[in-house]
Write a structure and sequence with these properties.
The complex is a heterodimer. Chain A is α+β, with helices and mostly antiparallel strands. Chain A contains three helices and four strands. Helices cover about 85% and strands about 0% of the residues of chain B. The chains are: A alpha+beta, B mainly alpha. At the A-B interface, helix 1, strand 4 and helix 3 of A face helix 1, helix 3 and helix 4 of B.
């Protein structure tokens, strides 16, 4: 699957790593919902690091759409939350 | 739905806005290329903005540092003149500048990070521009109308996603600059109001007092010198050295 980290680029991550990413994302979701700044920073850092580690960065000229998108890795909780409020970010 | 899918949806929404719904998929390649070029210009302008913001912070930090150094020197001068009260005041003001300086350093680091990221974004977009220019012509020439529909669609949404990401990065940098500009403006006002002692005003109150002390000691010294001179003159008494004032009727200079 193709995962984009905003501001950084796209990574081709093996599907076998999906469950790892899911687990890390769950921690991120909880931190966002619980408004926990510290947990958020840790979870976002861990998720971005896992994507970089498991994935192979795509060349900028690969012109592929992503399956998943990780927020800016150094973003604050407030910044990410305001981004999630933008159109398209609804939890359908 | 998790954060990653939601983020994906947001990027998708931004991407859809970027995409022109061209009838002919081949035409959408040219439109995307045009957008890509505009996007690159936008990112480059943003890099320039961030660099300007960074320079402004550097300038303020230099001014504050100069102010701190000056207060340190004034404290030293005050002690030399046995004015511990003034020295204490100068050091207290110097200490008050420390958090301001630390704040500027933090801001500088943040702006430098933004600058670095945008430079990379600009480089990546440049790579995309170069690659897409060739690719779109190949695609136009190779694909049949039916193939073009899917293949070109993929490439166009891929490139649009990158542009969406770049657009978000630019927006992010702009937001950071805006909040920094506000703080930098406040700092300029603070420097100008004299609250931090304006450097453009060479004589501040501490300096004025130090100057006064040194002026009065100069007067004391001069007075002592004069007294000594007069004392010596009275002893020697070799006749007056003064010139008699010129007469009113004859004011011609010699």
């Amino acid at each position: 699957m193709i995962v984009r980290i905003l501001g950084e680029g796209q990574f081709d991550v093996p599907d076998t790593d999906r469950s790892t990413l899911d687990g890390l994302e769950e921690a991120l979701n909880t931190a966002v919902d619980g408004n926990d700044e510290q947990a958020f920073a840790a979870a976002l850092g861990a998720l971005a690091a896992a994507v970089r580690k498991a994935g192979v960065q795509l060349a900028p000229d690969s012109f592929t759409s992503s399956d998943l998108v990780v927020p800016f890795a150094d973003a604050s909780l407030a910044e990410t939350k305001s981004l999630l409020d933008e159109p398209g970010g609804e939890r359908t | 739905m998790g954060v990653m899918k939601r983020m994906s949806g947001i990027l998708q929404a931004k991407t859809n806005k970027l995409l022109d719904k061209a009838e002919d998929p081949r035409e959408s390649l040219d439109l995307s290329y045009q957008k890509l070029l505009e996007n690159l210009q936008k990112v480059r302008r943003s890099v320039a903005d961030v660099t300007t913001a960074k320079k402004r912070i550097e300038l303020q930090a230099t001014q504050l540092q100069a102010q701190a150094d000056k207060l340190q020197q004034q404290a030293k001068d005050a002690l030399t003149q046995n004015r511990e009260d003034l020295a204490r005041e100068a050091l207290a003001r110097r200490a008050a500048l420390a958090p301001q300086l630390a704040d500027l350093q933090t801001q500088h680091q943040q702006v430098a990070d933004q600058e670095q990221k945008l430079i990379v974004t600009a480089q990546n977009l440049q790579t995309q521009v170069d690659a897409f220019r060739t690719k779109k012509e190949t695609m136009k020439a190779t694909y049949t109308a039916a193939e073009a529909q899917t293949k070109i669609g993929e490439a166009v949404s891929g490139i649009s996603e990158s542009m969406g990401d770049a657009g978000m990065s630019v927006q992010r940098a702009q937001d950071k600059i805006d909040s920094m500009q506000a703080r930098a403006g406040a700092m300029d006002e603070l420097l100008a109001s004299g609250a931090l002692t304006d450097l453009t005003n060479p004589v501040d109150d501490i300096q004025a007092q130090l100057d006064q002390v040194s002026a009065s000691s100069t007067v004391d010294n001069d007075l002592a010198a004069l007294k000594a001179e007069i004392g010596a003159g009275a002893q020697a008494q070799l006749g007056p050295a003064d010139d008699a004032p010129a007469k009113d009727s004859d004011g011609a200079p010699a």
